[in-house]
Design a protein that fits this description.
- Six copies of one chain form a homohexamer.
- Chain A is mostly helical.
- Chain A is built from seven helices and no strands.
- In chain A, helix 6 (91-105) packs antiparallel against helix 7 (107-123).
- Chain B binds chain C through residues 1-3, 6, 36, 40, 43-44, 48-49, 52, and chain C through 1-3, 6, 36, 40, 43-44, 48-49, 52.
Chain lengths: 128, 128, 128, 128, 128, 128
């Protein structure tokens, strides 16, 4: 497959998960400087890995939330809480993942995860 | 609920996930020295969090695999690959999680995860 | 012991360490969404582990400060600097732990730890 | 060599890399409380390791940027992006290091690195 | 560019860095299970990022060594010490990076890095 | 103070903590290649930080054990469990630190810490 097709497929998948406006904003945020990274994210991240069969998108979101909470990447965690909600995850499922974080990455990681997850859920106007 | 009941429920859940023999072996491995930690794991880990509704056990396994791969805990990762297989995850689903690790925690983490996951799957006599 | 008793004991211990107001505020901050995590923290964190004999509370505080500095959890680090001061640790002892962080987790971790520790000590009106 | 000479050499090297004003500000920021850490940084960090032959300063800067991005130390990362520019690294070279971060520490680490690097480069009035 | 061309270019670059035999061995080690990850590594890692102009390959190797030492990935660290030697880095330059690790990721990380680096250098029959 | 005096003081302190034989073995293990790192460890680590008043050596050991367990440095953790025992820490105190690790860095970190701590304690012929 041509990398340009892969890139386009990735942008489409990414917009399905996060919304067109959010993706356009993120893709443009760092201009020329960020273009090569956006290329990697779209082509390989969303055009390739996220487009693979074998694991439903909703589960991918929950796994990504758990990983980002564990490795302490707050900004990425927040982005993927939004993605998880768009992929059909419930606030309860997201909260359960945050509780698993307490067991495997510790209470400080779980505290940060709960705080950001709830803030993000409420920004969406979802009661939780 | 009495903590002893919670402990017993945790041991039962843990044995459903990993098998009675494996759990008995792990619970006894560090004797008196490890008893308080085993108490925490059984009571709070399996008796409480893993026993909660709101997220199916199979998804919990995949999230835990992703987290342990990302935070570089090889022994725990291996234990939970076995648990994931017992919880009905397929080798393909486990592999997809390991590919997500490449995106969010990097290629070195994904290399370690793939190696240990395949080794564990094959030890089970599963073709992959 | 009943988990409710353990929970109550944990809340009492937690309030001894951080003050009733601070604990009430933290326990309520995330409402229903955070309740299960607060349950884990109170029951297992403070009702169980922190309530164990075998290591004095002041030393537990210094160990927790060192761990949180090393794993880069700024919010938890700040909470436990306050706890350490309440547990009778001196600013000098806290500073010595932050210097140990430089050796074992590196200078960037030590810079963050020193900055937050001093800020927290000064918020308490303690000269340092 | 006397540690005081080492300290002085370190301060001189540090000021060559970051500028006298920035270094004076950082050295004084935490007063007495931070003095022992500043002593370690100047004597051992800059007076010893950074003063060693065997690796050019520009390469040291790029390695430090990569390490701090990978271990999630944003403040230190920003400081060393400024140092890298002073040591003759180009915005392109810094960006290439940030892309390497995506491969070895993951996309969330690379996103944070790109954002802070570009912000820092632009604060210097450098077009990128 | 077609992803197959990118893949082929990546394999070629990878073999220049690590040697054909080592790469063939690694590419085949996990069979079908590891094929998608090898695809990511070859296409995006070596065909794309490592093939970019803007940073010389030797510096990329030193940055990757520093990052892997800091994030505690021993297997990947060892692979890239070999790559660094093939890319023209001297044992002294590799050692200097390992000393920078002490400053930014701590002495435990530096101890592991020095041990593995020297072992790898000696396996090559290089005196150090 | 002359750095050579600081180095000598550091070697003396280090030998008090770990024993002369163990220190001589570690100092010589990496020959010329490791000499600059050993210089940093002896001069700054033990001659400076570990020699500071303000925190008793026994507490420093327990903090270092907690930090190394949290950041996943098994070799350094083991070295400092031996040091802690030499500094008068009891197996019970070391075990309590390992239980704190479960709360703040997660169960996988606590499992590794308990396993290595008990193995090390038993190698000393201490019943636990």
């Amino acid at each position: 497959m041509d990398t340009q097709e892969l890139y386009s497929r990735g942008v489409a998948v990414r917009k399905q998960i996060f919304g067109a406006e959010a993706v356009d904003k993120r893709m443009g945020a760092l201009g020329e400087f960020g273009a090569p990274l956006q290329g990697l994210i779209n082509t390989y991240g969303y055009g390739d890995v996220w487009s693979r069969p074998g694991l439903e998108r909703k589960i991918r979101s929950l796994v990504v939330i758990g990983m980002n909470a564990a490795i302490n990447r707050a900004a990425e965690f927040k982005v993927h809480v939004n993605g998880a909600l768009n992929n059909g995850c419930t606030p309860e499922e997201i909260r359960e993942v945050c509780l698993m974080v307490a067991l495997y990455a510790g209470i400080p990681a779980a505290n940060d995860a709960h705080r950001i997850a709830l803030e993000t859920i409420r920004e969406r106007g979802i009661k939780a």
